[in-house]
């Protein structure tokens, strides 16, 4: 198990260490139930948490904005988060698709078939993305949370709506 956590950290280290205002990636050694708590805390710490007229609670975030998804569903969402600008849909990085695809595929494999995946993004039949904004009404935001074997991975990409 410690080897799995170390490998997940190694895979995502360039994103975790990256000083980007619009991409937030984290890996924690935590219970799967803590995934939404960690997301809520990170949004709050960065001043990104939306609220319509009241602050958004952890429970409401989980119920109203996040849905369960399969690994096959979240892989293209994570790929988009790590390679494209959300507001203008142009290549943004920090990774290219050629670099990100095998890294994120390995992440999915490491977390395994029993992983629990949550996201606020829906992929429509034509390949377009739709989402429920967690981080306030004036921000595009895609979230993917993965949890398995006491490992929680979070990827959050935000962009101001043009």
Structure in a nutshell:
It is built from 5 helices and 9 strands, in the order αβαββαβααβββββ.
Give structural notes.
By secondary structure, the chain is of the alpha+beta class. It has a single domain, classed as Nuia (3-Layer(aba) Sandwich). It is built from five helices and nine strands. The strands form three sheets. It has a five-stranded antiparallel β-sheet, sandwiched between helices. It starts with a helix and ends with a strand.
Break the fold down into its secondary structure elements and pairings.
Elements: H1 2-17, E1 23-29, H2 35-45, E2 51-52, E3 54-55, H3 58-64, E4 67-69, H4 71-83, H5 97-111, E5 116-119, E6 121-123, E7 129-131, E8 139-148, E9 151-160
Antiparallel strand pairs: 1-9, 2-3, 4-5, 5-8, 6-7, 8-9
